[in-house]
Amino acid sequence: MRDNIEISVVVPVYNSECCVIDLYKSISNYLSEYEYEVILIDDNSSDKTWEKIIELKKMSHTIRAIRLSRNYGQQKATFCGLSKAKGRVIVTIDDDLSHPIEVLPDLIKKFVQQNMDVLYVTPDKYHYSWYRKALSHLYKKISRYENVNAGKGSSFRIISHSLAQSILHHSSHLIVIDELILWYVQNIHSEVHAFYPSKKKRSSYSYSKLFHLSKSTLMISTTMPLILVKLIGFLVASLSFLAGIYY
């Protein structure tokens, strides 16, 4: 594999046979001026995603393909991709063509010129159901009680190779990429762009997976679990005190 990689694009994919080929074509089209690699991590898809990836790999030397032994989820699949990335600039994107890949060249130039550690691309609006939007909004409000920068990110991000190494060596069994970034970066950069509706019929995130992700995010936070325990303890103590007065 080449050692002069400028850009590594890390893409966790799951049940993406309908769009993985178009996704790669779009990436290669907009990054043609760079020395780049595309790392596709198949999170043990149950459709023909892996076959499509092998087909692509036979046609291009820029693809690195990894298939996980079981479905670990987007966060761990992304973490795996970061561990393999050789580029001095690393891009992470989703597999469903919802991210505006056409803005990458300008964003990468800005990222390099301003010597950033992380640059998020966030949507001007989310193409989710109204109740998922409401739950997401509530969760972000709670998260920002702990850290004003929490909840500002997205899975469309550009990070430096040095930041990726810090994330990879972080001593935690819980893996939530955005929370790990907050451990090492104070100055969070972001830009808003229009996102597209997903090309996949079904989201990779079920509500149970979203719940487990939220739980992991709270647990990896520095003091949020302690704050919650303190609040619950105060509430129980207050109720016990009032009950004692009553009886």
SSE order and pairing:
Elements: E1 7-13, H1 20-30, E2 36-42, H2 49-59, E3 63-67, H3 74-84, E4 89-92, H4 104-113, E5 118-123, H5 130-146, E6 157-160, H6 161-168, H7 177-184, E7 189-193, H8 207-220, H9 224-246
Parallel strand pairs: 1-2, 1-4, 2-3, 5-7
Antiparallel strand pairs: 4-6, 5-6
Describe this protein's structure.
This protein is an alpha/beta fold and 247 residues long. Helices cover 46% and strands 15% of the residues. A 7-stranded mixed sheet has the order 3-2-1-4-6-5-7, with helices on both faces. It is globular, with a radius of gyration of 20 Å. The mean pLDDT is 84.
H-E order: EHEHEHEHEHEHHEHH
Distance between the termini: 75 Å
List low-pLDDT spans.
none
| Number of H- or I-type helical stretches | 9
Percent of sequence in beta strands: 15-25%
**Radius of gyration using CA atoms only:** 20 Å
Total strand count, please? 7
Sheet with most strands: 7 strands, mixed
